[in-house]
Design brief:
Rhopdopsin 7-helix transmembrane proteins, 15 helices, Phosphatase 2c, domain 1, five-stranded antiparallel β-sheet, alpha+beta, seven-stranded mixed β-sheet
């Protein structure tokens, strides 16, 4: 009896010793009991070696000199600095009789590229199906070899995601059932919440399209669209077993999360605090920066986005609290909705930092919190929309009342229109019908008005000594007042055009305008005197005179800065003199040509003016003016001309 007991103890000791020896040699033991109730993750006992050699997949390869890694998922003890992109991992597996000739399910989670070999034979390449089957034969010893490549390993580390791979095995039916249930649960939540939010968004966007003045529907629908896409990407990151895809979905989610936070802040400010103060811009900047950080490192530095969201919630409650204090209608609805969202978001936060355990499969709480928020916000927007409709009905009643007033005013407007047309005719009659022709000069001028009574003016005078004086001007504004100013300048020019020193004429005009108390009415003027091929110019608040030098074939600007007539007494104006040569051309113009806008709201500006003038400078004055007006028509197209355009062209023969 004692002898039998002795042999029994000896056998048990040998078995335990051999098992301990095998464990020390990093052999993983598998049995039906290990995998019966849950998947078994093969995370410990792996040998690894940096580099690439297909022989390392063979069963009889000696890997005793290789290092042992603590976990293939996180690769904590792997020297990341020595990583060149590829490494091999080998795991020694011993099975008992319960797994012989049995097919198991295998689940692979990876980042990068993975190839799996069993006893030297390829099992799966890249894990494209992610779930494969593994059939053991009647052998007991197996080598699981993994060729793993990841050129972005450090990027995953910085992002906070595990940079390696994970292989789990288990009962195939249980794995398929568990995985399909999990995918169905997450997909159902993804589709339900995304579709619900998009439906709300489309509804409010349609409201906006039917009544665009009610912009609150636009901001709210934009917020819902971005939020729905953010929620979709968040769930999608859970559904992917490829970590490259998960990282992409997480980065998109982090960016959209920051964008939806900004749009929610914009919505709250638009509703309760229309003026964007410093606090708004500071929080918006913080949301933008945290979004960028979240895109670069969606897990490791996700705390910045959480802090930004907390700051957003605080600001939302501050703004809504002030609105409630002001008895602003609907403020309590918005506050209630955000309170529900904050409550569920706090659940997510506490679970993430392990303050509270997760309740069953309730992983993401914030999508459920959004239901309360969207219901409250939609009720508020709907009530506001109803008020807007009532306002429309009231406006329609007002329009009918105003229609009667409009008809009464129509007759008065017709009378005023006739008066303005008479004033326009008087204004145009002031302008010279034609310029005299000289032996050495060709002159042409034309004006195109923007209103019934133009503010532009041009004229000429010939002195007894043969000096030709030409003036072009632009009165501030349009209409009758501008016409009064032009008439005044016409009288002053007729009486003082013989003045040799042009600045005296400008200062005299200023004194008369000041004396008449015309308010903010001023007159921009450019004057050119020509005598014996000498050109003398001066300007008071007008665009530069363009001078085409025939010999050099280039356009020069005669820039003479000065205040408009009527603006400042005793202003010191400048004069400039040039020698004229045959072929030279002078262009005097008002700012209506320079400052005209295209249909795309782009200004014509001086460089285009010079280029256009250069293209036609050697033509006759009449042809030059026609070319300039054609350029104006092509630039403005269907745009309404909002300022007068006038040209005076002088060509030296």
């Amino acid at each position: 009896m004692k002898t039998n007991l002795y042999y029994t103890l000896l056998i048990l000791f040998i078995i335990l010793f051999n098992q301990n020896l095998l464990c020390n040699n990093n052999i993983t033991f598998l049995s039906q009991k290990v995998i019966k109730y849950q998947e078994y993750r093969l995370q410990d006992g792996w040998y690894y070696h940096l580099g690439d050699n297909e022989n390392w997949a063979l069963q009889n390869f000696n890997d005793t000199s290789w290092e042992v890694i603590s976990g293939t998922r996180t690769m904590d003890n792997l020297d990341k600095k020595k990583w060149k992109g590829t490494a091999w991992f080998r795991l020694h597996i011993k099975i008992d009789s319960t797994l012989k000739n049995k097919t198991l399910g295998i689940t692979i989670i990876y980042a990068g590229h993975i190839e799996i070999f069993v006893n030297g034979k390829l099992l799966t390449n890249r894990g494209q199906d992610d779930r494969r089957t593994l059939t053991f034969s009647d052998k007991t010893d197996y080598i699981l070899a993994v060729k793993y490549s990841n050129t972005c390993l450090n990027e995953f580390v910085f992002a906070g995601l595990p940079p390696g791979f994970s292989i789990s095995i288990g009962d195939i039916e249980r794995i398929m059932t568990s995985d399909s249930n999990e995918i169905r649960r997450i997909s159902s939540q993804q589709m339900f919440f995304t579709a619900l939010i998009l439906a709300f968004g489309m509804l409010h966007f349609i409201f906006y399209l039917n009544y665009k003045q009610h912009r609150i529907n636009l901001f709210y629908s934009l917020f819902l669209f971005v939020y729905a896409l953010s929620l979709f990407m968040d769930y999608q990151s859970f559904l992917s077993s490829n970590m490259n895809e998960s990282l992409l979905f997480l980065r998109i989610h982090r960016g959209l999360m920051a964008a939806s936070n900004f749009l929610s802040l914009l919505f709250i400010y638009f509703v309760f605090q229309p003026r964007f103060n410093k606090t708004f811009w500071l929080i918006s900047s913080f949301l933008f920066i945290s979004g960028l950080i979240g895109i670069l490192s969606p897990i490791k530095y996700f705390i910045f986005l959480e802090i930004a969201q907390a700051v957003l919630f605080i600001e939302v409650f501050r703004v809504t609290a002030l609105a409630i204090k002001r008895n602003q209608e609907g403020a309590w609805l918005i506050a209630t909705g955000f309170s529900v969202l904050v409550l569920f978001s706090l659940y997510d936060l506490f679970v993430d930092i392990n303050l509270i355990p997760q309740f069953g499969n309730f992983e993401n709480g914030y999508p459920f919190g959004t239901i309360g928020l969207f219901i409250c916000m939609s009720v508020y927007v709907a009530k506001d929309f109803a008020k807007a409709n009532l306002k429309i009905i009231e406006q329609e009643r007002t329009v009918k009342e105003q229609e009667l007033e409009r008809r009464l005013l129509e007759a008065d407007n017709e009378r005023k229109t006739k008066e303005l047309e008479d004033a326009r005719k008087l204004q145009l009659s002031i302008l010279p019908k034609a310029f005299p022709q000289f032996d050495h000069l060709e002159i042409a001028a034309q004006m195109r008005t923007a209103t019934e009574v133009g503010g532009d003016y041009y004229d000429y005078h010939i002195s007894n000594d043969g000096t030709l004086t030409i003036v072009i001007g632009d009165a501030t504004g349009h209409g009758t007042k501008a016409g009064i100013m032009v008439t005044l300048i016409k009288s002053l020019f007729d009486s003082m055009a013989h003045t040799f020193f042009i600045p005296d004429f400008f200062n005299h005009c200023t004194k008369i305008i000041k004396r008449m108390n015309l308010g903010n009415l001023y007159m921009g003027l450019s004057v050119a005197k020509i005598k014996n091929h000498h050109l003398t110019t001066s300007a008071a608040g007008m665009p530069p005179i363009l001078f085409y030098n025939f010999e050099k074939k280039e356009v020069e600007e005669i820039i003479l800065k000065g205040m408009p007539a009527g603006a400042s007494l005793n202003f010191v104006y400048q004069q400039q003199t040039k020698l004229l040569q045959p072929g030279d051309t002078i262009l005097m113009m008002t700012d209506g040509f320079v400052e005209m806008f295209s249909s795309e709201k782009e200004i014509f500006d001086y460089p285009r003016v010079k280029e256009t003038f250069h293209q036609c400078a050697e033509s006759t004055p009449e042809e030059i003016i026609s070319y300039l007006f054609l350029a104006a028509d092509n630039w403005q197209k269907n745009t309404i001309q909002d300022d007068d355009i006038s040209f005076v062209v002088i060509k030296v023969k």
